[in-house]
Amino acid sequence: MFDFFEQILQWLDSDIYVFFRDAYSYYLLQVTEARLKSQLFIIDASWEAAKALLSSLNISGELNVLMGRLEPSTVKLMNFFNIPSGINLLINALITRLVMRFAA
After folding, report:
1. CA 19 – CA 9 distance, rounded (Å)
2. Using an 8 Å Cβ cutoff, are 46 and 103 in contact?
3. What's the alpha-carbon Rg for the chain, to the nearest Å?
4. pLDDT, tens digit (0-9, with 9 covering 90-100), for 69-99
5. Of 79, 54, 58, 56, nearest to 68 (Cα)?
6. What is the structure's pLDDT at 104?
7. CB count, 10 Å around CB of 67?
8. Do 102 and 46 contact (CB within 8 A), yes or no?
9. Most distant CA pair in the chain, distance
10. What is the DSSP letter of 70?
11. Contact predicate 72/22, CB 8 Å
């Protein structure tokens, strides 16, 4: 009969700490995993929105039209310094940042 009470006392004395520590670590693992999955979903959705926005803006086509209006020597110089690609990258980065701001 006293063994039963001693085991309960031992569980309350030391094993209850282990139980709550393990339960809390399991809880933190589940919360962290859920948060990471939700962030990955939001990033994926943001990327799809950014791609749709970029394709609807047709940046490359507009740059080609604008480059066609310039003198050939200016276009040659701009192509040498890769300025159209830089403008395209800059606009893509700004749109992606704008979309990701709404996701955060």
Report:
1. 15
2. yes
3. 30
4. 999 999 999 999 999 889 988 988 888 888 8
5. 79
6. 64
7. 15
8. yes
9. 101
10. S
11. no
Find where tokens 């749109």 sit: 95
**Structure tokens given for 81:** 């310094």
Domain ranges of the chain: 2-103
Residue whose token pair is 């609807």: 56
Question: Three-class SS of residue 58?
Answer: coil
Query: What is the distance between the alpha carbons of residues 6 and 94, in angstroms, rounded to a whole number?
Result: 67
Total number of residues shown for the chain: 104
HSE of 40 in the Cβ direction (CA atoms, 13 Å)?
6
Q: What is the pTM of this model?
A: 0.59
Name the residue type at position 88.
N
Question: Which run of H or E residues covers position 16?
Answer: helix 16-57
CA end-to-end distance (rounded Å), the chain: 59
| DSSP summary character for residue 71 | -
Q: What is the pLDDT of residues 17-71, one digit of tens each?
A: 888 899 999 999 999 999 999 989 988 888 888 888 888 888 888 888 988 999 9
